[in-house]
């Protein structure tokens, strides 16, 4: 059973706001999944969704920029440089690439324009656990 909240005002920062909610005024649990996807990409990029680097390019901030990079296959261009410098982190080979790919894919799915196309939080958690397992399996023992 889906639950929907019809509200005229939902608190929050616009860059985290579900685009379908903006169009329809229907706020569902999938709206929170969208916001969580924005947070995932904040973690990957090392910047807040409303950083001027993003809002100067697109008023909606990080989410549409990440979707564009994902669609073009250029997501690694927006990964936090500090992550790239970690001794166990590489974007060109090994299990960490699998971790980044899995993390990016689930983040991208969270940012789907339509609420019905977004994963459940249960699926999100399962995918994030996979990313962690890729990292753990690579770490030196």
Series of H and E elements? EHEHHHHHH
Terminal-residue CA separation:
46 Å
CATH topology (fold) name: Transferase(Phosphotransferase), domain 1
For the biggest sheet, the summary is: 2 strands, antiparallel
CATH class: Mainly Alpha
Show the helix and strand layout.
Blueprint: E1 4-6, H1 19-24, E2 26-28, H2 29-45, H3 52-55, H4 62-72, H5 81-85, H6 95-110, H7 121-138
Antiparallel strand pairs: 1-2
Give your account of this protein's structure.
There is one protein chain. With 141 residues, the protein is mainly α. The chain has a single domain (10-138), classed as Transferase(Phosphotransferase) domain 1 (Transferase(Phosphotransferase), domain 1), CATH 1.10.510.10. Helices cover 55% and strands 4% of the residues. The protein contains 7 helices and 2 strands, in the order E-H-E-H-H-H-H-H-H. The chain has helices spanning 19-24, 29-45, 52-55, 62-72, 81-85, 95-110, 121-138, and strands at residues 4-6, 26-28. A two-stranded antiparallel ribbon has the order 1-2. Helix 2 runs antiparallel to helix 6 (95-110) and helix 6 runs antiparallel to helix 7 (121-138). The longest helix has 18 residues, at 121-138. The radius of gyration is 16 Å and the shape is globular. The model is unreliable at 90-95 (pLDDT under 50).
């Amino acid at each position: 059973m889906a639950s929907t909240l019809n509200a005229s005002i939902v608190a929050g920062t616009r860059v985290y706001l579900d685009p379908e909610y903006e169009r329809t005024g229907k706020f569902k649990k999938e709206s929170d999944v969208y916001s969580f996807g924005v947070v995932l990409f904040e973690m990957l990029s090392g910047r807040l969704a409303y950083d001027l680097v993003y809002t100067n390019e697109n008023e909606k901030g990080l989410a549409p920029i990440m979707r564009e990079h994902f669609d073009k296959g250029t997501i690694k261009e927006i990964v936090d440089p500090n992550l790239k410098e970690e001794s166990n982190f590489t974007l060109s080979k090994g299990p960490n690439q699998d971790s980044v790919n899995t993390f990016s894919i689930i983040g991208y799915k969270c940012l789907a324009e339509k609420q019905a196309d977004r994963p459940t939080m249960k699926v999100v958690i399962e995918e994030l656990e996979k990313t962690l397992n890729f990292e753990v399996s690579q770490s030196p023992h």
